[in-house]
Amino acid sequence: MTYESREAIIGSMSNKLDMILNTYELEEIGIFEEQGEGNEYYIGYTLRKDDEMYMIHTPYEKNGEGLLQPKKQEWTIELNDSEIHGISSFEEAMKKLESGFEH
C-alpha cells in the first residue's frame, strides 16, 4: 500500500458520488472524514437512505507528512449510536443497508 494525499483520496471518492447516488437510490450523499486518535484517520461517505442518515467509512493511517494509506480493508457503518464493523467492502456495506440495518 502506498501513501496518498487526503485531496487525492477525496477527489477519487468525489468522482463516484453520482454513480453511488443513482446505483443505490440514495436521497443524498457526501464525503465523511474524521481525525481519529494518534495517526488514525477515517474517510468514507455520509448518506441518506429511507430517511436515515448513515456514515460508512474505512480507516487510514496518517504519516508524519500528512499522507494517508488504508490501514486495513474494512468498512464500518454507523447510524446514531449503532455500528457494524468488519465489512469487507463498500459494496458489502451497501448490501447490508439494503437488507436492513439493525439498530
Quick structural overview:
By secondary structure, the chain is α+β, with helices and mostly antiparallel strands. It is 25% helix and 42% strand.
Structure write-up:
The protein is globular, with a radius of gyration of 14 Å. Strands 1, 2, 3, 4, 5 and 6 form a 6-stranded antiparallel sheet that branches. The mean pLDDT is 93. By secondary structure, the chain is an alpha+beta fold. 25% of the residues lie in helices and 42% in strands. It has one domain (6-99): GK1464-like (Alpha-Beta Plaits), CATH 3.30.70. The longest helix has 10 residues, at 90-99. The chain contains 3 helices and 6 strands, in the order H-H-E-E-E-E-E-E-H.
**Radius of gyration of CA atoms, rounded to a whole number:** 14 Å
- Envelope shape: globular
Largest sheet: 6 strands, antiparallel
The CATH superfamily is identified as: GK1464-like
CATH classification class: Alpha Beta
Order of helices and strands: HHEEEEEEH
Q: How many helical stretches?
A: 3
Mean of residue pLDDT values: 93
Counting DSSP E segments of at least 2 residues, the number of strands comes to: 6
| CATH overall fold name | Alpha-Beta Plaits
Low-confidence stretches: none
CATH architecture verdict: 2-Layer Sandwich
**Secondary-structure class:** alpha+beta
How large a portion of the residues is in β-strands, by DSSP E? 35-45%
